[in-house]
Amino acid sequence: MIIELGHFMLVLALALALIQSVVPIWGAQTNDSRLMAIASPIAIMQFLFVGLAFAALTHAYVTSDFSVQNVWENSHSTMPLLYKFTSVWGNHEGSMLLWVFILVIFSALVGAFGLNLPPKLKANTLAVQGWITAAFLLFVLLTSNPFHRIANAPIEGRDLNPILQDIGLAIHPPLLYLGYVGFSIAFSFSIAALLEGRIDAAWARWVRPWVLVAWGLLTLGIAMGSYWAYYELGWGGYWFWDPVENASFMPWLSGTALLHSAIVMEKRGALKVWTILLSILTFSLSLLGTFLVRSGVLTSVHAFATDPSRGVFILILLVAFIGGGLSLFAWRAPMLKQGGVFSPISREGSLVLNNLFLSAATAAVLVGTLYPLALEATTGAKISVGAPFFNATFGPMMVPLLIAVPVGPLLAWKRGDLFAAMQRLFIALGAAIFVTVLCYALINGGSALAPLGIGLAVWVMVGALAEMQLRIGLFKLPLGKSFSRLIGLPRTVFGAALGHFGLGMTLLGLIVASAYQTEDILVMKPGDQTSISGYTFQLDGFREHAEFNYVDLIGSFQVTKDGQQVAELHPAKRVYTSRNMPTTETAIHTIGGVTQLYLSLGDAQENNGIGVRIYYKPWVTFIWLGCVVMFIGGCFSISDRRLRIGAPARKGRAKQAAGTA
Amino acid sequence: MFWTIAVVLTLVTIAIATYPLMRKERKLDSANAYDMTIYKSQLQEIEGDVERGLIDEAEAEAARAEVARRLIGAQDALEKESETDRKTSDAPASVSQFEGGKSNLRFAVVAIALVIPLLSLGLYFTLGSPDLPAQPLQARLSKPPENQSLTELVASAEMKLAANPDDLEGWKRMAPVYARMRRTDDAIKAYRNILRLEGESVEALSDLGEVLVIKNAGVVNDEARELFQRANLLDATAPKPRFFLAIALGQSGETQDAIEKWQALVADSAEGAPWIPFAKEQIAALKKRDASGSTTEGEQAPPPLAGPSKEDVDNAAELTAEDRQQMIEGMVSNLADRLNSEGGTADEWVRLIRAELVLNRPDMAAKTVTRALDALQSDVDGLEKVKAAARSLGVSIDQ
Hints:
Chain A: Residues 89-295 form the Cytochrome c assembly protein domain. The structure holds two protein chains of two kinds. Chain A is of the alpha+beta class.
């Protein structure tokens, strides 16, 4: 009964979403406070119902109820409990339910905590959220229903895809979806502003924290996914420019642009219309990502064409939301008041530059992702657009942007002084030049451009701290005074500094790890030794180890450097018995928290030999640590107290009513 | 139950969704008033920043001027608005507007009260399976055996074997079931376990040999052949090992030996033994082969799955009612053994009584009742439960 109640509550949520999409807007048009007021309770109820439906499905997974087709297809009674939970979203239907669940969480948050929002803005925003929720609930119920039942329940499930039987599945998709779907709020706020034809001051203040939340979680989600692919796939790569990755990277790029334009809008009231457009585009890219990953169009355009029910449904959603959003923008945006003028050399100007480069980079990734699909659909030719394309297009656009990153925060609003800003960055510039020269002097081999890249990363990292140094008067004021100023700094300043510093860290990790990594791919037998980058790897032997649902062939390696033992590593070749599917379990040893030794086993060869891949990856953890630092920066910015807004003081009768209530 | 909850949920949903519509109309604050609040707090923030020395006076002045300009703009807009408000509220038009609002409201309430139940119940009727009960695995496997489906019976027996792999009786029960379900690998595993636990017996050795032959599509491989030979050593008269050894000889081209073995088997068998027709066919075929001088195997290789269990294996890919009965009996007797030796709860005793009635053994059930009453002497509630169950099932209680 729990399952069927979950199913029923999902249907109830759809009915509520449909009401939420119509009545509050009607109220906003007719100025009726009561019609508008139903939006919040309905949003909160939807959250409850979808949450309970999600809990019901989870319950079916945990109790291995194979009368639910989705449970039967994606789980096994002997799986560890954690994977029974994560299997809920380790499949198409369940993950779409998670998508909708996160969407209604966000709606409910606006409904519950948007007390100080102007009522019309809130009603319209929630109504737009209602459109999205209704559309996706329909999609779930009609094409991807996780509550579909089997009358004659099989006795055992078909197991979860082995690659997904990992802690990564517990973290990566929820984070990614929180990010994707978080941008829906920015979208809804923008559409609401367009519907009403005015941009409230509250609008500017509300959009930024929501974008920050979505952006921060998306950053973590992408980093997590990248690290997961790195250790799970067993060939040492962390970013493949794969369409699925691009699908999450595009909203991140435009979301980053949105984050910055929202600052201009909040502080200066400028770039309002552009921010609205970016909000629409960012969420559109989230939807596009969902379409690419969920419609099956990536596996094969032809498979998509033969079983198009899901794909066509999302495609219609895509056209409706993106097309509708952009048409509304074209129609209503000219009515919006533009505010704030600024000269090109100014904080605003630098943020516009940021937006230009980020948008162009997004476009490059978009082309590289969609072009092969379009080509396959029209001519049938399958091509893959890999790293070379993106290195040639995306890379060059990033360089000027990265050079500009430290400068922006040092320019004053409205009218800046570039020369003064550059003067303030002399420490960062000096550090960058010093490190570059040092690299050229000390490092043999590797790319000739790598030291320049390292210098750029140092420039971004040290430069990120320049604004803070300047604001607290470090080296100019007495240390105590500087410290007290540091305490009093607005958290957004920390946020910006950490965000930019993290970006520099990621860049540094990417450059060092790709330019100076060494690898060895060979066949080893017990007793064999090999050395890379000063580390000696000796294969001691193998043993077999069986768990209830897989069998491991575990290799035992001694790692030594200059005769001293560094680590003992145990990579494994794993075969999942129920699907007879092999995976590799890599062994990774981290040295000093930054550099990693990475070992994975290939196929067994004749004469007791086995294929072994060994990588020495210097500073590779900086790639992900940088993302974590960016996320922490986002948290700092969100926690800034100045984002809170008071409700307007009421006059007369309303005030009395409030007093007695 | 489900429909009660569903209807209650629907009604509560309608109530919460329409509640705001029943309340009094509230005068809305102008959006400009909201804007002004934000501008005022921005002014305060600028002062705060100046106090903490974060921005210098010149910057602060510029910022103040900017925010103040916006504040004044919002103020003007607000005043203009309230002026038009006053004008329109004097006019009688507003009354009709208010009436219009009322009819809007009525319409909204009716629409919500219709859309929610019609859509949710309608859509659920087409998509849901309200009558299908939940079937969590644990509950399915711990159901009393007479209520279990075939797959559930097999799975719960497997679960018990996984927990206790030394359960000889369990393996003995499952081995033929596996063989008939064509789960050959599982059958092989079961027979190997029987050999491990029981030691060698003619029956176990030749049964294992037979499933190995089935797995090898009728070919008696070396391992199977060795098993049959061991069985043959234990009992030279047992027909099954002799049967398969004869096939093995035929397959390996030892035609003369094969013919002799077949003839000996036929001679020793009672009349009407099921393998005799097959043996005679084999003799004829082997003789023909011998005459043509061909020693190549293959063309005359016996059909796969030939043997005493031919009909069984061919006709019973699925379990028969008998097998099912047999499995249930096995499980019921397990339960009975456990309760007799270790005791158990009143519920377990009642379950056993029920099971015995399902198996059509009223005498056994009556005895079980007596034993249960003995065993539960110290448990007053338990005694009552068993007595009540016995009465309702129509089993006599002799005290």
